[in-house]
Automatic annotation (TrEMBL):
UniProt-recorded name of the protein: ACOT1 thioesterase
Keyword Lipid metabolism: yes
Species assigned in the record: Cochlearius cochlearius
GO terms for biological process, alphabetical: acyl-CoA metabolic process; fatty acid metabolic process
Occurrences of domain Acyl-CoA thioester hydrolase/bile acid-CoA amino acid N-acetyltransferase (ranges): 16-142
Gene name, Swiss-Prot/TrEMBL: Acot1_1
GO-annotated molecular function: fatty acyl-CoA hydrolase activity
Length: 422
């Protein structure tokens, strides 16, 4: 019988779901190379290769057979072919632009462990989708709001969340729609670099974000009385500012966020919060010419920079800090700890802080490959983001559960079964 690749689910799965991969019909203990490939919407190629030896029965099941040294990963890693995908051009990060179409994953099995690989023995394709059947994608252009609302299948109302990304700008939708697959009404909100919004990060007005909160609170499919906020990087400190000054927020989750205002002036009515000072002389450039910017920001506890510390003690919500302890963008763990101290000093509840050793800055939904370095719009050159691929992948899986459990608990009052920290 000719070798063939067996996948479960067979043809299509959600991007954040595990995929079981096996190869059958090989010779006893036959040595093979498994290569996975995926192209993003701009045509950039991401690939991973792993070396295996089939079992005595000619079966290769990635859940039971460890990858041998010499490939993109080694050891027992059933999802290694996905999380180890790396761009074939440097400084590319895998993102999904059009969530209505799946990524197409190509799997190929080659004879032996040679470079280049030997004869092609088997191949398969698999769709990695972003929208569960029945999830509705609703473009929102109300007043100044530029956003996309994702509504789960069924009759609401659903717990509502506003989702913010970072300095890349635009309107990333992939995390919002993956979260909507689990029963949340999620508004992916653009705040600059999109349509008629400001082209660059000079200043932000919280009135814009207030419009988005009110839109959600008044929506018939959103369950009140309050909503959740989810932000990564610059989106994180915007969420802290929203929670501190605006009404209607019950729960705020930050992924490697800051508790100081960063990168742009923030205004709300008669309040102005300056951005945290920077010193570009503290940029370190490594041998490959990639910048390490982790020390660039000033300390928000010292001197005039204290004015950039967001008054999160004013917030009437619960906080969750997701921290990659190898974040090289900025000191996320320091920000989380200082935010916690500030809240407790003002008699507020201690926030949840979940730290992941070996995780870098871009903690994405599960199975997005770790981006080690890419262009930083504000720095104008490639920067390192930190992280070790396997630890980063495990952090993404666990953080995704932690975020959902946090919002379920505080937006619906229901405890959920969450995984133990990996």
């Amino acid at each position: 019988m000719a070798p063939s690749i067996r996948l479960s689910p067979a043809a299509r799965s959600l991007f954040d779901e595990p995929l079981a991969i096996a190869v059958q019909g090989l010779g006893p203990r036959q040595q093979v190379t498994l290569r996975t490939s995926l192209r993003d919407e701009t045509g950039e190629l991401f690939q991973a290769c792993a070396r295996y030896q089939a079992g005595a029965d000619g079966e290769l099941d990635l859940a039971r057979c460890p990858a041998l040294p010499g490939g993109s990963f080694s050891g027992l890693e059933p999802m290694g072919p996905l999380w180890a995908l790396q761009p074939q051009k440097p400084f590319r990060r895998l993102v999904k632009r059009d969530v209505q179409s799946p990524f197409l994953l190509q799997l190929e099995v080659f004879e032996g462990h040679g470079e280049p690989p030997g004869r092609l023995l088997a191949q398969a394709q698999h769709e990695r989708a972003f929208l569960r059947d029945g999830v509705r994608r609703v473009p929102v252009r109300e007043g100044r709001i530029r956003a996309t609302l994702f509504l789960p299948p069924g009759n609401g109302p659903f717990p509502g969340i506003i989702d913010l990304y970072g300095t890349g700008g635009g309107l990333p939708e992939y995390r919002a729609c993956l979260l909507a697959n689990y029963g949340f009404a999620v508004l992916a909100l653009a705040f600059y670099g999109y349509e008629d919004l400001p082209k660059d990060m000079k200043e932000f007005h919280l009135e814009y974000f207030e419009e988005a909160i009110n839109y959600m609170l008044q929506h018939t499919q959103v369950k009140g009385p309050g909503i959740g906020l989810l932000g990564i990087s610059k989106g994180g400190d915007l969420c802290v500012s929203m929670a501190s000054f605006l009404k209607g927020i019950t729960a705020t989750a930050l992924i490697n966020g800051s508790v100081a205002n960063v990168g742009a002036v923030l205004r709300y009515k008669d309040v102005t919060i300056p951005p945290l000072g920077v010193n570009v002389k503290r940029i370190q450039v490594n041998k490959s010419g990639i910048a390490d910017i982790v020390d660039v920001l000033n300390n928000p506890l010292e001197g005039p920079d204290r004015q950039s510390f967001i008054p999160l003690e004013k917030a009437e919500c619960r906080f969750l800090f997701i921290v990659g302890q190898d974040d090289r963008n900025w000191k996320s763990e320091f920000f989380a700890v200082e935010g916690s101290k500030r809240l407790q000093a003002h008699g507020k509840e201690k926030p949840e802080i979940v730290c992941y050793p070996g995780a870098g800055h871009y903690i994405e939904p599960p199975f997005f490959p770790m981006c080690a370095a890419s262009m930083h719009l504000l720095v104008g050159q490639p920067v390192v983001w930190g992280g070790e691929p396997k630890a980063h992948c495990e952090a993404q899986i666990d953080a995704w559960q932690q975020i959902q459990a946090f919002f379920l608990k505080h937006l619906t009052g229901k405890p959920s079964v969450t995984s133990n920290k990996l």
